[in-house]
Amino acid sequence: MRKTIGATLVLAAILMITSGCASDWVRTAAVHEKSESYANTATSGIKAIRIADELYDAANKGNRQLAYTALIQLERESKRTEVRAMGTSKGWKAFDASIQSAKKAFAQKPNGEEAYLHAARLRLAIDALYRSSPLWLQYQNVVQEDLERLRQAWVIEWEDRSSAELAALNVLRIHAERFEVAALLERPEADVTHFQELMNRMEYAIVYAAKSSGAKERNRNLDRVWLELQNSADMLFGDSSVTKPASGEPSEAAATDPAPARIMPLVPDMAAREQLATMFIAAFVMGILAFVGWQRYKFEESHGASYPPPKSPWERDA
């Protein structure tokens, strides 16, 4: 009976050690596989950001040849599988369309503001994929200033109030056009299109208000659309959607094209390293316990007495 119990204990200890080591090997292999994937993504991200910066700088300096070369490189880099795995499908459609528009703009003489606009759009888009704090989110303060300037245009008594209002709205449109692609890569399409639709409604409200004779009704209509535009901007910049690859399309309209996956850390986090260390230590301790148990079992089997043996009379007297 004691033999059976002892053998069972030894076998259980060996199985625990084996399973613990196997778990460690599986976990370690998974960590290395993820690290390799993250390393590939990080390398592509660094290269894409560098090319986008070169494109923007060349366009800003009017160097059309260098800008066009960087544009072709950016187009090639953006088609890599690990790059397209991030962002949203709607965002990538807008990105590809902006690439084609930029090619036409750089091919023209002079290319001017249109080429610079597309370079800025593409740079913000690439930055949105790889930065933890994307540059396009800094446009929130710019948009708030544009909205306040737009509201002041009809609050203050101008000689040509509608022209001032439309001019202020046009500034808002220009800024919104710059971060449009980046927003589509990070936000649900519905939030971006709603903001754009409200700018169109604001233009219609301004034109309608110019033909209205009642100042009170005029201001009330403009205030209503302005408030909706303000709320839409807050939602657009404050949205925190769940990460999702571009290939998947959610079923709910409110969750369409959520935020992209970003570069993950290239080294396993502290919790994973601590778990691996704990499992190795546990396996080592279990090995020692198994060895001690085996010694006890062998002694009892050979001597027919409990382990360790009882002390001799001389040892007890001492």
UniProtKB/TrEMBL annotation:
Which segment of the chain is annotated as a signal peptide?
1-22
Q: Does the keyword Transmembrane apply?
A: yes
TM ranges are: 276-294
| Keywords carried by this UniProt record | Membrane, Signal, Transmembrane, Transmembrane helix
Positions in coiled-coil regions: none
Q: Where is this region: Disordered?
A: 239-260
Q: Which PROSITE patterns match?
A: PROKAR_LIPOPROTEIN
* Protein name according to UniProt: Sporulation protein YpjB
Q: Which organism is it from?
A: Paenibacillus aurantiacus
